[in-house]
Amino acid sequence: MSEELNIDFQATKKEKYESLLPQIASLIEGETNLIANLANISAALHQAFGWWWVGFYWVQNDELVLAPFQGPIACTRIGFGKGVCGTAWKEQKSQLVPNINAFAGHIACSSLSVSEIVIPIFDLHQNVIAVLDVDSEQSDLLDEMDVYYLEKVSEIITTNITKHKA
Ligand code: SME
Predict the structure, then answer these.
(1) Span from the CA of 72 to the centroid of ligand 1 (angstroms)
(2) Residue 102: Cβ-neighbour burial (10 angstroms; 0-12, 13-18, 19+)
(3) Sorting pLDDT into bands at 50, 70 and 90, what band is 166?
(4) Residue nearest ligand 1's atom 5 by CA
(5) How far is the C-alpha of 89 from the C-alpha of 40, rounded, in Å?
(6) Residues near ligand 1 (Cβ within 6 A)
(7) Mind listing the pLDDT tens digit for each residue in 121-157?
(8) Ligand 1, closest atom to CA 135?
(9) Whose CA is closest to atom 3 on ligand 1?
(10) I need a labelling partner for 96 at 20 to 30 A (CA). Which of 63, 87, 121, 134 fits?
(11) Chain segment 51-90, per-residue pLDDT in tens
């Protein structure tokens, strides 16, 4: 595995994702440790897009617990159905929140975040095992295209888990 990401910072967002997805797949290929893989994925996404905060919470019993991330310190535990993350878990559905002030129950880990995307990550049996959370301090940065490609990242993680359970 190459330990350098190839990112063209002049490229469009779509082009960046198209180039990044195969690199993320190869980054975690052959590694079975989920913490290591989530750590590298959050670093790769942060390197490529420079978001304010990007990382994971994973399901531990009845809560989401903070997992590998890049960015400022964050809240460690989120209940089922709470905030944007807990809602993505409960509804098993990606959440695009262009303005966090318009989302009732949003959990403000950082006062600088203004928009957010949360993507559920599933195991083989369609159970949510974690969520991928992206926070931006810009209001017009995150959109449906990010949801589309971040769901592909989620699928890469599911495939990785599947492969190693086989
Ligand atoms: N805003 C999230 C909490 C996690 S932090 O943004 C890192 C939420 O409402 O679930």
Answers:
(1) 12
(2) exposed
(3) very low
(4) 109
(5) 22
(6) 53, 74-75, 78, 83-85, 106-107, 109, 113, 116, 133, 135
(7) 999 899 999 999 999 999 889 999 999 999 999 999 9
(8) 6
(9) 107
(10) 63
(11) 999 999 999 999 999 999 999 999 999 999 999 999 999 9
Choice from 46, 75, 137 to test ligand 1 binding pocket (greatest atom count within 8 A of CB):
75
Nearest to 119 by CA among 146, 99, 141, 140: 146
CATH class belonging to 13-165:
alpha beta
- The Å distance, Cα 158 to ligand 1 centre, comes to 22
Q: How confident is the model at residue 30 (pLDDT cuts 50, 70, 90)?
A: confident
Q: Which residue has the tokens 């990401």?
A: 5
